[in-house]
Amino acid sequence: MCIGLISFAGIFVKFVYNLATHPMENPSRMATGTFNPPETQPSRPAHLRFANCRTLLQLLRVHGPCSKADLVRSSGLSAPTVSSAIAQIEALGLVETLGEGESSGGRPPELIQFKASHGYVAAADIGGTRLRMMLADLNGTPVAHWSTQFAADQKDPASVCSVLDEGLRAMCQQTNIPTSKVLHLTAGAPGITDVRAGIVRFAPNLTGWTEVPLRSMLRKQTGIETIVENDTNLAAVGEYRQGAAEGVEDFVFVAMGTGVGAGIFLRGSLHHGARWSAGEIGYLGVPGAPREPMEMHKTGQLERMIGGAGIELQWLERLERAGLRNEPELAELRAPQIFDLAQEGDLLALEVLQYTAVILADAIATLALVFNPELIVLGGGVGSHDRLCRETDRLLRSADFAPPRIRTSFLGTQAQLHGAISLSLTAVESKLLC
Amino acid sequence: MCIGLISFAGIFVKFVYNLATHPMENPSRMATGTFNPPETQPSRPAHLRFANCRTLLQLLRVHGPCSKADLVRSSGLSAPTVSSAIAQIEALGLVETLGEGESSGGRPPELIQFKASHGYVAAADIGGTRLRMMLADLNGTPVAHWSTQFAADQKDPASVCSVLDEGLRAMCQQTNIPTSKVLHLTAGAPGITDVRAGIVRFAPNLTGWTEVPLRSMLRKQTGIETIVENDTNLAAVGEYRQGAAEGVEDFVFVAMGTGVGAGIFLRGSLHHGARWSAGEIGYLGVPGAPREPMEMHKTGQLERMIGGAGIELQWLERLERAGLRNEPELAELRAPQIFDLAQEGDLLALEVLQYTAVILADAIATLALVFNPELIVLGGGVGSHDRLCRETDRLLRSADFAPPRIRTSFLGTQAQLHGAISLSLTAVESKLLC
User: Fold this and answer.
1) Is B68 exposed, middle or buried (0-12, 13-18, 19+ CB in 10 A)?
2) Model ipTM?
3) Residues of A in Cβ contact (< 8 Å) with B276
4) Which residue spans adopt a coiled-coil conformation according to this UniProt entry (chains A, B) (predicted)?
């Protein structure tokens, strides 16, 4: 009995660690034996207690306030096991009692809930011109926002880290949360990011961002455990968790703003590629345009043609031809405003929108040919314009192939922050019970 | 004890079913209890015995002939458990004894080996002009090959199925294997294939292949369990299992022959896409060429320019200009022969190879931008030419971005068949013990 059981136990613990879904019963009664699983592991009873606590915590987080009897029912654990695990979790400050619930006859049961204010996680979206930040509790509910425009001399890595630290402190002050309660930070950077090494390889829209060890810089600056990720990838995670791609396992998030890039989501998680550069579609060639050699340190062809600046150039050329180049209220319009004008029926603006949609539709067709995703989510300051989405969709549907569904981002400029919070919550989860 | 154990057991059984790696001890001694896992399952002891048999069978297949003592050591199971499981496997005809091994002092131990001739699996590669077939034993070792050129009136679905059946019977006759021992068939088709439904959506190089229920047709024709898959995807599986991409989890197999297509391999398995059309790169636009609307029922731009016919057209144009158009031994050369000529230093042929490599390098750059794979494997009658691979690699390396590694197929025209055998072996594996 014993030997087999231990082989069970080792596997089971790994199983629970991975999925945290299957509860088990009273592990303290488990016998020990001589079989050694391949990896060294700490003593099993502690691990099993940990797994029980984790299961109950997860139930509390998903289902909200409930009684111990509810937990017994939904976990399959025995009442004494639930009681002892809840006591342990309570001692760590992770749950709180809420008073009494509805009685089904006898004494009304005490309700327990996950204490989301036990800790907080922070998100930072480092853009080419501004820094956006968010603080959220352990349920992912935002409790504070902060943002600032970078001054011209604030775009180097060290300055960005110190502005970010300032933002973190400001949010903690606003909310009266001690910085020690901020358990994790995820920062998004506008460039190719080696998530494993914590290094931003290259971010062309900032100053001096080549091979920046952003993760260790931020850890040092803030004292907080940190993940760094590409900003478009974070936006894709955000849209997957609670946005336009909720529940869609295979989709591509196409971000159009100053730059053009994509976050590739396959089988329910980000696809980074062998060198962390998957989704760098700004460098794609544009059908019908002259062939160009690829130069990673220059703006790519697609981005040059339908990034914000490319769209505004098209607009200025058309104003010029129409003799309207000197009207400042027209000449100074930015890409989203030009699309607003198109929406109102302005013919010149409609031409620019049409120009953009044709090129965007070709790029999406390329993505569809390679990946055949279920869905494309258009995001970013330019890409999330509803009229652009509808026109692109119309063009794709008129072609002779089955195109993916297209929809605009639900989370807009907040997508990156929500994605970052989601990654931080996942990172923190396994440490809550330690 | 009991209740927890059963919760263990349910999970453990699922675990072994998925991975078939972790052995366990003497399940017949397990107690039963009242905990019901969410899914209904047959009685556990039978399941656990099954899991033990499966573990031992896997060890025998991987390690080759070994003694019961070897199995006890490498499985972690007890000697009586191994003995009873081996007796069970032997009764099913899945192992055979080989005589005596080397003695370590006492009586020399009897060696047992997996009986690969217990059954066979068949592979069929349906091409635009010919059918290739292979029969392999349960170790995947080929025992027979068969191939035929389709007559002009043999390219419709029903005729292809009957030619395939003929090939199957011919291979069985050659080898004296009763068709009843052929346990599974995987057939590859040159078109978009819905693997789940068993339907070939569209195969332009055959006749009348639109929405063909190939799986059910083949099952009916041959009486054998069948999988249908896209041929390029099968080639990718073949290269992954025992070819140029062995052990590479993220790679793209680019097939260039009459057609141009790709098999996308992601995290160690095929990526099919939402509508089974991932990798249809023949329709990609070619940088610098005029923009074309996408028409799935015509030849795509990339395929038209660097598929076999496109390359041969370039060659004829150059012959024309050089006044050599009427030399039949030159004018009738096919793409691989033109590349052979380039290899020997012929300048016109080198120009054609260069033309092809530039366009191929751009297509690979597109794949690298969106997918960033570790490796590109070039295959197919045209794509596997070594000189083309070297020239494409040189062009990619001269560009200003980190390109993927490129290598030619190791398995050549046999890649599809090896991939098919591999899928059939996986499909058959779980049924061997039933």
Assistant:
1) middle
2) 0.83
3) 372
4) none
